[in-house]
Write a structure and sequence with these properties.
The chain is an all-alpha fold. The protein has one domain: Tetracycline Repressor, domain 2 (Orthogonal Bundle). The radius of gyration is 19 Å and the shape is elongated. The chain starts with a helix and ends in a 5-residue tail after the last helix.
Amino acid sequence: MKEKIINKAKEMFLRLGFKSITMDDIACEMCISKKTIYKYFSNKDILIEESIDLVHKEVKETMDAIISKNYNAIEENFEIKRMFREMFKSAESSPIYQLKKHYPDIYNKVLNIQVSICEDCFRKNILKGIKEGLYRENLDVENYVKFYYTLIFTINENTMLEKESHELELKALEYHIRAMATLAGIIELEKHLQNPIL
């Protein structure tokens, strides 16, 4: 039952927002009593944290699955971007923006997890791109990881609408790749930018 509550809460929080959803809403949606929810979660903050943990787990698993498919580094970036769009397509407002605004304590806790997942992914992608000849050899990898990470999180923290956030992230991805790319990388990038799926 606990897992079912977390799954339903996650879905509702992402779709309708962390602040607007109450324990009553979740109980009503699941046709269970509020008492049942409180048996597993003493307050809404704990349920939000557990829901976010589940989102992180799903994101990590999906990213690992994409990386295991042996796309080139630029394709991999676009596939991961697609995955995020698909995962958060029902969200009207940016989940990160909502957390920062309404639940700053939870936001600060989850930020460290996100930093570690994203930095590791960005670093591996840059090294892969260098090896494939799509990114320049003389890159300062750690600084590029930090630049891109800072750019993406600044967008998410300060952009209320998920659609607008998605568009800015796509521009940031293009900016990031162009800054690192060789001629072969630019050609590969242009190919993906013409793809209407994103």
